[in-house]
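Mods, move this if it's the wrong board.
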Amino acid sequence: MRAQFVLSEIGVGLRRNLTMTFAVIVSVALSLALFGGSLLMSDQVSTMKGYWYDKVNVSIFLCNKSDAESDPNCAKGAVTDEQKEEIKSDLGKMSVVQKMTYESQDAAYKHYKEQFGDSPLASSLTPDQMQESYRIKLKDPEKYQVIATAFDGRDGVQSVQDQKGILDNLFELLNGMNWAARALMALMLVVALMLIVNTVRVSAFSRRRETGIMRLVGASGFYIQAPFIMEAAVAGLIGGTVACGFLVIARYFLIDHGLALSEKLNLINFIGWDAVLTKLPLILATSLLMPALAAFFALRKYLKV
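Not the wrong board. Structure tokens:
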């Protein structure tokens, strides 16, 4: 009987404040959709880092005859066979090196023609203008500085370049966008909490006579508060369900179908459905507990008779 009364009161409260209930649902849905989106964005950045950092190389470019005339780092002339052997030997002794590949001037020229054959500059280049290089794959991409310290400025070395530095700029941009989404999410959560508190207080005010009578006949504080807390929890849960729907639809249309980014951007390793599905229970739990707790604390003072 008591459970039936609580459920009937929930329905009455939701219908009586329909406009504010709708506002709560929308604000909770948007804020939790942003919350889930920011979590997925973090997963995406981590996945991309793991995928790309595993592929980046450190390149040691060696001086050629052209560099000897124009580059201060190559003032002592083009790299010699002895210097190349010394560099190769030192790389082989370094524990941070997983794999080392030598690229000759002819191989560099061939790769350049394959990638930039349509460029006007390509027709004027010759193999002897290209740079020999060692391409090094590190066991830990974060250990680039070890290679740079050991070889930067050495005779015969024009420069030491880390491809990871290029990727870091991209990941910093993505992380910045993610933090902006989190800031917007926090603002939406504050708005949602304020709406929940106001909705609960309006509902309690409209039923103050009923709650006063219940208090006089000996009803416990929790029994009086339960319908109001449940109203907020139900509205929040509906909003959380809508937020989950947003995330599932966004993943489906943006990556798999519709825009089909997974097919158009083959170089990006997108997160899978498992990452999305593991976030849904957290969103639903948050949508249920957040409004319930907000209503509980709002009612502690307001329902004192």
